[in-house]
From TrEMBL:
This protein's encoding gene: mrpB
Assigned keywords, A-Z: Cell membrane, Membrane, Transmembrane, Transmembrane helix
Record localization: Cell membrane
Assigned protein family: Belongs to the CPA3 antiporters (TC 2.A.63) subunit B family.
Top-rank lineage group of the source organism: Bacteria
Membrane topology: Multi-pass membrane protein
Official protein name in the record: Na(+)/H(+) antiporter subunit B
Chief place where the protein resides: membrane
Amino acid sequence: MTEDDPARPQPSPGRADGEWGRADRSGAPPEDWEAPRERWLSTGVRPAFGPRSVLLEVAARLLTPAILTFSVFLLVSGHDRPGGGFAGGLVASMAYVLRYIAGGRHELAAGMPMRPNGLLAVGLLIACGTAAAPLLLGDPVLEVYSYTAHLPVFGKVKFASYLLFESGVFLIVVGLVLSVVAALGARMEAEEEEARGRRRAGSAEEGAR
């Protein structure tokens, strides 16, 4: 096995070759001994809550597209079957919460199309606009307009204005959940970063001795 062999374990950044997996003076394994050696997420930033976990990173990488696809299915099919904008928004939020747990606020920011406050604003604008638009035509609030089209592959497809309203609710739920997650996790992340700084300072002082 050569030095350039990709199968050979590589030391983590800042650690000399041959020190991979070496325990500290207390006999405990190094803090990042189980950290994944490959980059599974969008950012390489270490999460705030504990060390990196290959299980969480792989789960976040593989499950996020499937969860978001299922949330869109709930959004589209919610008028006639269980689901809708609220249920779809909750499911989509779980995908981003999983990324937040795996990679912290940096990973959450990298995976979001816009900030949670922006999602709330856009969702409110779409929902309120769709609800009030029928008033311009002399119809009551939340009047539903539908149109049926025959598509070559899908056949008979029905388009209804309620889908716009449900999309607004979808964005509102996602923005609200992520705003709550960010607010609750900000203080915990700050405390964890302070604790890491103290541990690094203590390790540096011990090494200097």
